[in-house]
Amino acid sequence: MSRSHEIQRQIRNVQRLQRVMRSMQLVAMAKRRRCTDRMLAGRPYAAAIRHVARHVVAAHSEFRHPLLDHRDDQRAGYIVVTSDRGLCGGLNHRLLTRVNHAMDARTETTDEIPLGVFGKRGMAYFRRRAGRVLASANNLADAPAAEALTETIRTLIDEYAEGRIDRLFLAFNRFENVLHQKPMIVQLLPVLPIESDDMPHTWDYIYEPESIDLIDAVLRRYIHYQIYQAVLENRASEMTARATAMQKATDNAANRIKKLTQIRHKLRQAAITQEIQEIMAGCEATSG
């Protein structure tokens, strides 16, 4: 096979890849719009339930829920939200690196830290790292059902309620804008009280029917929805990062095609020049 034919074959292969990546970009852009709308619609409720939960923590109730116990910060657990698929740039890598550094900073060994993981990428990472994954959930849809998250959430809450961990953290990628997705680690348990500047006075509530039932319902709804919102945030970040990565890949493929085309033209011009030189040399030989 001649050199020009080999380059032409490479151009066709790159063009096929370019079409695939362009299609993936368009799909990711369409999904990004839906995921972003769903995520933004959930933020007001997430903020409201967080505010209510922190008021409950600050109230002087006759009952102290086990999820409100403040203990010495010795043992921690993590709920990590990642994507199921790759091809989204460094989105998962940045988050997992931050979680890795946070875990290394703990006093206990890494194998003793309990984990709840959402997404196949996180599972693959902690399997290589020998993390103690207690529960996981994969193949979450763009709008995951709450039931798909329940088992993992319940497992880590039970770890805290039974005193096996003193802190529970949530790690996910927060959607800032189409150019920036921020990896975050926030404390879920114990629930942090409202800052004194935001609430100058403290008060108690009048509970009906019983404070135990209402506080338990509020706190568990708070925890479940914060994790659910984190999954939505991470999904919107994933689609945004994938659309950006596929756009860059499509542009790189176009640049590669351009360079290969230039090389093919140079080879063709060199071949034509050589043929002309051979013809001229033959003419000179016959005329002489």
UniProtKB/TrEMBL annotation:
Source organism, top-level taxon: Bacteria
Key words, A-Z: ATP synthesis, Cell membrane, CF(1), Hydrogen ion transport, Ion transport, Membrane, Transport
Family: Belongs to the ATPase gamma chain family.
Any single GO CC term annotated in Swiss-Prot or TrEMBL for this entry: plasma membrane
Compartment(s) of residence: Cell membrane; Membrane
Subunit text: F-type ATPases have 2 components, CF(1) - the catalytic core - and CF(0) - the membrane proton channel. CF(1) has five subunits: alpha(3), beta(3), gamma(1), delta(1), epsilon(1). CF(0) has three main subunits: a, b and c.
Organism per entry: Salinisphaera hydrothermalis (strain C41B8)
GO MF: ATP binding; proton-transporting ATP synthase activity, rotational mechanism
SUPFAM superfamilies assigned: ATP synthase (F1-ATPase), gamma subunit (SSF52943)
GO biological process, one term: proton motive force-driven plasma membrane ATP synthesis
Lineage of the species this protein comes from: Bacteria, Pseudomonadati, Pseudomonadota, Gammaproteobacteria, Salinisphaerales
Pfam assignment, any one: ATP-synt
Membrane topology annotation: Peripheral membrane protein
Protein name: ATP synthase gamma chain
